[in-house]
């Protein structure tokens, strides 16, 4: 989901992610068991909760929950559950985007010039199975994350810190078992990390939901990797989306899984939780694709929070309604753009030719095509129609709340005449003469994303009657999978920060090895060089200069259609207590701004 990303970063970004394109990227797969029911062994004798009352929190959304395995959680749909089932070593303090607080670790020491961290772990903690939390569980968790490190997880930035590379052992032969075990090990009950070089963002990376500590004994018992040298190579890059742990999770969180089906997930308060017992005993997340049905349930009080469809719906249909509270003007710490894939895989290209019936796989490799699409997107209109006048055009896929964003750079301008000229110049005139048909995807149920694509379609098709833009609604998990495989021609792409540094955005969107590179398939040596230099220096002025260079070149090359900033807004039933600007921290939860255990209902 993204710099989770930790200063002015992912907190509000999570809301934007949810309302605009829901990571992630945030961020990513399909559960692999859509028609099955998944339960933990402890819940068979518990009564099924109703959908009302002070001890039940009901949330309705349009999208699925791809996974419950923290080792591959990299989207906000999954993260909102995983962060309540599992716990990390450290977390965020209140609504701060930068201050960290102890969670499963009680204290830590930094040594060896920032290349060694020693964590004292909390005692008296139990997993949902009843197993005690010990150092071996943390050791297993981080080693498992380093070993698997799939493209559908956020473990690349953990691996960068601990192994010096974001790749796994299948892609980087320098990774050995010895490197992994040296990077994270137990010294008695003290967890020790050793880094190849100092990383000022390391602690913040440990607060990311995907680094939640798993129950190692339980994981091995149900068929996960056994944690040994003899089998580690077999686990490298293994898809964990529908893993045994995804179906039968065991964390230390205040809630444990009761049941997960294709249409709903239920979690219940964990009786042996080490901290204060939650006041809300049961949480139900229901998949309701129809927006009208969600809004009706919300207004009637049958749901406490719903995916509303964004600011236009909240302002037009919900503000001022009895029983509904609105929290507004939440700072935007996410970044969104529409990617243009320069090497499309699969059948998304239609005829595969510039004959009006499709596009060649490298259609977007001509900069004039990309510039034409950028100039044809009306950002001011999008701000007015979708965001009700809130937000500003951006010049870079980096929140303006982050260091490194240069507000003096002029953002792209909406200009259909310029777009026309770009298309006339593209592919030696063939684009203009023959036309094209291109497919653009958005997350099914996301009204803001759908509206954005409709505005793009209208403007592109107005330029030349031979131009066709087909808008395709897809499940979130399908978009994630296709985007990672490079099969999407154009897709709404969003990122909420993983940790507090502009690199988390810039590397993600623009680096040839960045997480979203499969969505654009670009290798820009100039930008890669600037990114690597920015990663290696602590000179703030130089870093800002480098990010300005990257922003200017990325604008010139039109790698993305840039979406505007979008101040956050959220609606919830007034019976829900604990949501406020003083407590709201999107780094922790994209819908409530705080964990479920800190909420109550009247």
From TrEMBL:
Residue intervals of the Solute-binding protein family domain: 99-516
Family assignment from sequence similarity: Belongs to the bacterial solute-binding protein 5 family.
Keywords annotated in UniProt: Signal
Protein name: Peptide ABC transporter substrate-binding protein
InterPro entries: Peptide/Ni-bd, SBP_5, SBP_5_CS, SBP_5_dom
Entries under Gene3D superfamilies matching the protein: Dipeptide-binding Protein, Domain 3, Periplasmic binding protein-like II
PANTHER family, per the entry: ABC TRANSPORTER, PERIPLASMIC OLIGO-PEPTIDE BINDING PROTEIN, PUTATIVE-RELATED (PTHR30290:SF34), PERIPLASMIC BINDING COMPONENT OF ABC TRANSPORTER (PTHR30290)
Record's signal peptide: 1-25
Lineage: Bacteria, Thermotogati, Deinococcota, Deinococci, Deinococcales
Keyword Ligase: no
Chain spans, region Disordered: 31-53
Pfam family of the protein (one): SBP_bac_5
Organism superkingdom: Bacteria
Organism for this UniProt entry: Deinococcus aerophilus
